[in-house]
Each structure stands twice: as structure tokens, then as C-alpha cells.
Amino acid sequence: MDGAMYREILANNLLPSVRALKMGRGWVFQHDNDPKHTARATKEWLRKKHLKVLEWPSQSPDLNPIENLWRELKVRIAQRQPRNLKDLEKSLRNSVTVELPCSAAVIVAEAKQELVEGIPLLCFLFLIPLNFPWSQISVTWLGVVHFLACLSPQLGSVLYHLFMNHEGGEPVYHTLLTLDMCGICMINTLDCIRSLFYMHNELGNIYTHGIPLLCFLFLIPLNFPWSQISVTWLGVVHFLACLSPQLGSVLYHLFMNHEGGEPVYHTLLTLDMCGICMINTLGALPIVYSTLLCYPFTRTVALVVYILLSSYAIYSAITARSSVRRLRSFAWQALFRFSFFLLRWVGVGGGSPTSLQHFLTMDALAVLGGIINIARIPERFRPGLFDYWCNSHQIMHVLVVGSILYLHWGVLDDLLWINSHHCPSD
Ligand SMILES: [Zn+2]
């Protein structure tokens, strides 16, 4: 085809099509920068007819949605395997009049998506690396991570929309959907991390557990009198117990608005629950151990029973459908713990004389935190005033940190006591 032929096609078909499609006067003609489209004679012809032509970037025929339609036509004709000219004409007619108008609607809709996502993707791909002030940025990897984050959702989306009608069927479609999701997840995860640095509803919740988490992470191992503790594994277990509820909570509050939706939220809730389960379980092991220090057999049985009981509690807490049921799954654990406090109180059980008071304070603070959280104090009195700071959830977080501190002091006393205590039979 040359320019003259192209102009003839336009002359015979363009305006009749506009009339047939009842497009009125508000339309703009679009073609790409193929030489016969941009030939001086063609330009002149379009100008004389007073046709408005869309400005089109050079060297970018792939942006042209009609190319998708031509491809679709080629695929359909190829499927029919025409053997002679008559066959070809017949399948062409059939494709153009019956099948193509239908797939054209789909392709135009898809093409719009591709353009919407595809053009920014190309811009980001070239403009970000070129315009980024690399020389002034000291943490280069953050810049690279940011660049990847900006590309990923658009890349996933473009691939998804471009290939969603691929005839690979279900497996291909599933892969594309996953790719699209991954892109969203990438930018979303970084968005969540960036949310650490500006004001929003969850910020207080993140920091009330995040700062103590960091303190515990570094201060406990540094300040623990490891050399004076004979049962090292109890110290390690205790350290993990102190970290776990805050780690679960920080992850939960940091990523709870992640657009991964229901499955992500559910996983986070489970993580948060696991943190609480861990401190309930691991945190109590040193208490059980030191209470029954002088009864090795009973001690081992009690530790095993407590771990089994806790496993069941963790299972029911994670699968619980309501918060009341979730609380109830911890009731047996609490009861078991209290029976040990009772043993100590009547003087049968071992343990440092100072630690029982610490443990009781620990549980009192935890219960108080739970009550404040459920009762929604103080925001129930002045709704809206405590959205950012000092709401019940944050007060609960602070009380939980206090509770962990008392656990730590109690266990520390007990571990040192184990070292200095001599059982009667020794
Ligand atoms: Zn929380």
C-alpha cells in the first residue's frame, strides 16, 4: 500500500463510517506515524477536509490500539486455514462482520487499560533513572528499591491486561493474575513501610510497640547476666517470649492496610495472635521450671503438659471466630499459671521470694490493658479526640509493655535464684 491508496481508502470510507456510526463533529482521527500516514500529500488531504488528527509520538506504533485488532484478525483467519482466495474472502467477511465487532469491544476496553498503565510504565522506566539525583543520595539501595517499587504494579498490570486473552487458558490467566497481585504487593509493602514517617491512625499503635521492641531486642541480651545463669536455654526462651508479642503487633499494625486484602489481613491477625500465644507459652516456662526446681520428674511432666496445653490453646486461638472464644482459649493457660503462683504462695513451690509479686503485677497489668481495650476508654467519652494518640488500644499497648517488663524482672530474679538455691536432697 502507498500513500495514494491510503488516501483513497480514507476518501471512500472515513466520512461514510463517521456518518454510519453517528459520531457527530466531536471526533478526532487517529493513525500512527507510518510513512504513508505522514506523507505530505496525506497531511494536505486531511487538512483540506478539515479533519482533526491526534498528535502521535514518533517510533511508537505499539501504542496504537488498532494493531491489537489487526493481530486478532490475523489469528482468526489463520485458525480457519483458508486454502484459496475465495476461502480467504469468506473467512474475512465472517470475521469482520460477525466476530470482530464483538472482540473489538473487548480489545478496545483492554487497549485502554494497556495505554493507561503502559504509558506511565514506559515513562517511569526511563525518566526515574535519568532524573534521579543519584550522586546526592547516600543510601543507593533505597533508591533502587524505590525505582523497582514504582515499576512493579504497572508492569504486573500491563502484562495482565496484555496477555489475559492468551489461549494458554486457565494456567496462563492464573499466572497473570498472580503477577498483577505481586506488583500491587510490592508497592504496597513499601507504602506501608513509608507510613512509619507520617501521621495516621495506626502510627501510635506501631510506635507504642515498635520502640519497646527495639529496646528489648538490644537491651535484654546485653544486660542479661548470662554468666550467672546456669540454665541458659531458659534465658533464651525468655528473651524470645519478651520479643514475640510486640513483633506480632508491630507487623500487624504496620501492614494492616496492605491492599493484599483479606488473606494478608488474616495472616497478620494470626501473627499478632501467635505473638500473644508465644509470650503466654514461652514466658511461663521459666516460672514452671523454678517453681518445681527441686522435683525434677514432676517438673519435666509439668513442662510437657504446659506445652501441650499451650499448643491446644494456640490452635483454638488461631481458629477462633470471635474474640470472646479467643480469650477463652487462653483461660486454661492462665489457670495453670495461677496454680503455680498458688504453690509459691503457700510455700511449697520454689522461686525467688521477690518474683511472685512481679508476676502478679504482670498479670494485673495485662488484664487491665484488656479491659481498657474492650471498654474503649477514653475515646468512648470524647469520640474523635483520641484518634491519633492516647486511645484505648495504645494504652493497652503500653500496659502490655509494662506487663512484659514485670515478667522480665520476675524471671530474672528466678533465674538468679536457681543458681544460688540448693535443693534439700543435694
Ligand atoms: Zn495492637
End-to-end span in angstroms?
A: 105 Å
Shape from CA axes?
elongated
Pairing-aware structural class of the strands and helices?
A: mainly alpha
Estimate the strand proportion.
under 5%
Number of DSSP E strands: 0
Low-confidence spans:
none
Radius of gyration: 35 Å
Which small-molecule ligands are present, each listed once? zinc ion
Biggest β-sheet description: none
What is the chain-wise order of helices and strands? HHHHHHHHHHHHHHHH
Main attributes of the structure:
single chain; 426 residues; mainly alpha; elongated; binds zinc ion
Give me a quick take on this structure.
The protein contains 16 helices and no strands.
Describe this structure in words.
By secondary structure, the protein is mainly alpha-helical. Helix content is 73%, strand content 0%. It has helices spanning 3-20, 35-38, 40-48, 66-80, 85-131, 140-163, 170-194, 203-223, 232-255, 262-282, 285-291, 296-319, 323-329, 331-345, 355-375, 392-420. The longest helix is centred in the first third of the chain and has 47 residues, at 85-131. The relative contact order is 0.06. The mean pLDDT is 84. It binds zinc ion (ZN). Residues 205, 249, 253, 393, 397 line the site of zinc ion.
